[in-house]
Amino acid sequence: MQRLFLLGAISALLGLTNLFAADAPPAIIALKAARLFDGKSKTLLPNGVVLIQGNTIAAAGSNVAIPDKAQIIDLGDATLSPGFMDAHTHVTFDFSGNYNELRLRMLDENVSQLALEMIPNARVTLEAGFTSVRDLGSSFPNSHDFPDVSLRNAINAGVIPGPRMLVATHGIGATGGHFDGTNGFRDMLFGAEPDWSNGIADGPDAIRKAVRFEVKNGADVIKAAVSGGVLSLADEVDVPQLTSAEMVALVDESHRLRKKVAVHCHGDEAAREAINAGVDSIEHGSFLKSDTLQLMKQKGTYLTPTLMASEWVMAKIGQYPPAIQAKGKAATEARSEMFRNALKIGVKISFGTDAAVFPHGMNAKEFVLMTGLGMKPIDALLSATSVDAELFGVASKLGTLEKGKLADVIAMRGDPTADITATERVFFVMKDGKIVKNDVKP
Ligand SMILES: [Zn+2]
Predict the structure, then answer these.
(1) Would you write out the chain's pLDDT as a tens digit for each of its 442 residues?
(2) What is the DSSP string of 76-122?
(3) Cα 90 to averaged position of ligand 1 atoms, centre (Å)
(4) 114 near 143, Cβ under 8 Å?
(5) Ligand 1 mean position to 357 CA, how many Å?
(6) Interaxial angle between packed helices 307-315 and 322-345, expressed in degrees from 0 to 180 and rounded to the nearest 10
(7) 383, 351 in Cβ contact below 8 A?
(8) CA of 179 to the centre of ligand 1 (A)
(9) pTM
């Protein structure tokens, strides 16, 4: 009883302190750097200043007047930018090592162990300047856990450092398709066929049930595989894996629940059906033909090219089983022409990497691949900020350096429009007004 009283007294006291704290406005931080990319303009501004109060941007621009009481952080010959976003990650996994060893580990390790191992993935992503990500699919064979939801919640609660996450829970797909975790294993090795509760659904009603189940369990975005994939053993990379009716059900149910739909798709036929069904983004898109890209432009569908994924797989292609080698080569050969066509046609290109296929924290290497295929550096930067913010549905809060937006601000050495690899040298990261990395040493 006495203890309870004491607790009550302490919390009353804390409440009182908070009350006093609320009277004083939070201190102002002024970030200064030689240049500023505001996330919306086609050029960088000189003499960049961002004023931050609490977790919000109070002002941003060129030569903004700095209030006397502000704490000034001068970042020197650097470029300030909105925090980068990555529309396609799997923070809960790391597939970058040897394929067969990883497959065994998935069977050996408990989900709780895998969950601990994902903590550094979140940290290095944030420290690389990626303050927001979509996590597009997280499931382990024969497990019903939702590790991505737990990771997102732990980050939001301040328990571990990491980016803001929009999570997809289990990828939805067909029996034997790219997301069927038992694909490539002996029949009934896991004692049961996966079902809608693992994301595996056949027929429009089962697809709706899978969407509802995932939203119930914390999904922010819905991910589905409408065509085959590279890193799954028993399917062809470009075949359609959902019917048109299934895709219509997928999009309708997701949009009713106000969730966007991202679909894994390499094949052209499946992409056309998915775009017509109204999906929000096509992930990968390796074999998309010009007509299909035109349809995307017309419908406003985003393309998330994930060039880093194919780059990484191709760099060590000899380590994969023969079936995957053939699929990886075919998809990579097709994707460069597809990307150039998408640029020419003016398809909205979102920045997304498929981090997990390569080690987390290397996300910014996507910039040099995009510009290498003809994208202007400034457009690549826009893609990783305001374009992604729009795709994520968070453009009113994030994606640009403007008064009233949440204070996710990064700085990189040099000028990324002159040398895009500057994006790989992020040395200052602020998320939600809090400095999470500040390495001002030259
Ligand atoms: Zn992926």
Answers:
(1) 444 444 444 444 444 445 555 567 789 999 999 999 999 999 999 999 999 999 999 999 999 999 999 999 999 999 999 999 999 999 999 989 888 888 888 888 888 888 899 999 999 999 999 999 999 999 877 778 899 999 999 999 999 999 999 999 999 999 999 989 888 888 998 888 999 999 999 999 999 999 999 999 999 999 999 999 888 888 888 889 999 999 999 999 999 999 999 999 999 999 999 999 999 999 999 999 999 999 999 999 999 999 999 999 999 999 898 989 999 999 999 999 999 999 999 999 999 999 999 999 999 999 999 999 999 999 999 999 999 999 999 999 999 999 999 999 999 999 999 999 999 999 999 999 999 999 986 4
(2) -SEEEEEPEEEEEE-TT----S-HHHHHHHHHHS-HHHHHHHTHHHH
(3) 7
(4) no
(5) 8
(6) 150
(7) yes
(8) 10
(9) 0.93
Token output for 428: 């200052």
| Residue 104 tokens, joined | 């065994």
For residue 246, give both structure tokens. 């299934």
- 111 CA to centre of ligand 1 in angstroms: 19
- The C-alpha atoms of residue 411 and residue 82 are separated, in whole angstroms, by 9
Q: Smallest Cα–Cα separation from 349: which of 379, 372, 316, 321?
A: 379
| CA 406 to chain centroid | 18
Ligand 1 centroid to 47 CA: how many Å? 38
**How far is the C-alpha of 222 from the C-alpha of 236, rounded, in Å?**
23
- Nearest CA among 362, 268, 265, 385 for reference residue 315: 362
Q: How far apart are CA 234 and CA 252, in angstroms?
A: 29
Q: Which two tokens stand for residue 256?
A: 């009713």
For β-strands 164-167 and 221-225, DSSP reports them as: unpaired
